[in-house]
Design goal:
By secondary structure, the protein is α/β, with parallel strands linked by helices. The protein has one domain (8-271): Alpha-Beta Barrel (TIM Barrel). The chain is built from nine helices and nine strands. The protein has helices at 24-33, 62-75, 95-101, 119-125, 130-147, 169-186, 208-216, 237-246, 265-271; strands spanning 8-9, 38-41, 81-89, 109-113, 152-153, 189-193, 221-224, 251-256, 259-264. Strands 1-2-3-4-5-6-7 form a seven-stranded parallel β-sheet, covered by helices on one side. Strands 8-9 form a two-stranded antiparallel sheet. A hairpin with a 2-residue loop joins strand 8 (251-256) and strand 9. The chain is globular and about 50 Å long.
């Protein structure tokens, strides 16, 4: 079996989101060092209604984003394969805009995200009842998958970091399982996001219990580091592969041309150059 690079970083950002640093070329340098075959740049989507403008590009900057990724793709041709993607916020009512947006460029991987920390989402859905907020969050994850607009549902228990003292997986599993049933029925993949190790609830998104339930439902999993800085590319991927294996997965997935490819975990593990620990 070929032990050469096979895996892509599937979740990373650019300065256009206003809270990341480094150009795609800088991320590519780290991707090469860590034994990745390529990376899909997935910056935060522009909105057409003023949704959280402080953490995303504007609609007018979309062309700059496409050109930025294309410039990096040409600069690294033959060394690291760089593709264009998008991380799109989801809340009910955004479907029409997102369908239009996703047709405006040749995206390779489209992440669907619900961000419970942002002020606009909190103002709309949080009413001083944390359990109700958690339930709404997981309902929206399932709704996102049901739209058919996304390849992968990103960091799918992010709400646990909204109020860490109020997170109890034994209680929350009662409304997580119906969410996973709905997502499984769509065939949409879900992400194992390693950046969770650096958050208040210091575990990947999702945690082990939820990941095991995803495996029980044969939900494909994509690994992403959610890199907002070049040094985070591929971070903790070896730990993520170990976690997938321990949950019963034998393959990890990725998307190119919005088509899913499943890779044997053993092959991916051999192809990575450097186990990257929490930073």
């Amino acid at each position: 079996m070929d032990d050469g690079p096979v895996l892509y970083e599937m979740h990373m950002h650019t300065p256009l989101c206003k809270h990341a640093r480094g150009e795609p070329e800088d991320y590519a340098e780290v991707a090469k060092q860590r034994g990745l075959k390529g990376m899909v740049v997935t910056d935060h989507n522009p909105s057409d209604d003023g949704w959280s403008p402080g953490v995303r590009m504007s609609v007018a900057e979309l062309v700059d984003y496409v050109e930025m990724v294309d410039r990096a793709r040409m600069a690294w041709a033959g060394k690291i394969d760089i593709r264009l993607g998008m991380e799109s916020d989801y809340a009910p009512g955004m479907e029409t805009w997102l369908e239009k947006l996703h047709g405006m460029a040749a995206f390779h991987h489209v992440l669907g995200s619900v961000h419970p920390h942002i002020a606009d989402y909190k103002a709309r859905y949080y009413h001083d009842d944390i359990e109700a907020y958690q339930r709404i969050y997981f309902d929206h994850l399932a709704m996102a998958a049901e739209t058919g607009l996304f390849d992968t549902i990103a960091h799918p228990d992010l709400v646990k970091n909204f109020s860490p003292p109020d997170w109890d997986i034994d209680r929350s599993i009662a409304f997580i399982l119906p969410c996973l049933d709905r997502i499984a029925a769509t065939g949409t993949a879900m992400e194992l996001n390693t950046s969770g190790l650096n958050k208040a609830v210091a575990e990947m998104n999702p945690g082990r219990r939820m990941l095991e339930e995803m495996q029980n439902r044969n939900i494909p999993v994509v690994i992403g580091a959610d890199a907002h800085d070049p040094h985070r590319v591929g971070a903790n991927f070896m730990e993520a592969l170990d976690m997938l294996s321990s949950a019963g997965y034998t393959c990890v997935s990725m998307f190119l041309d919005r088509e899913r490819e499943d890779l044997p975990i053993d092959q991916v593990r051999k192809s990575l150059k450097t186990p990257v620990h929490a930073e």
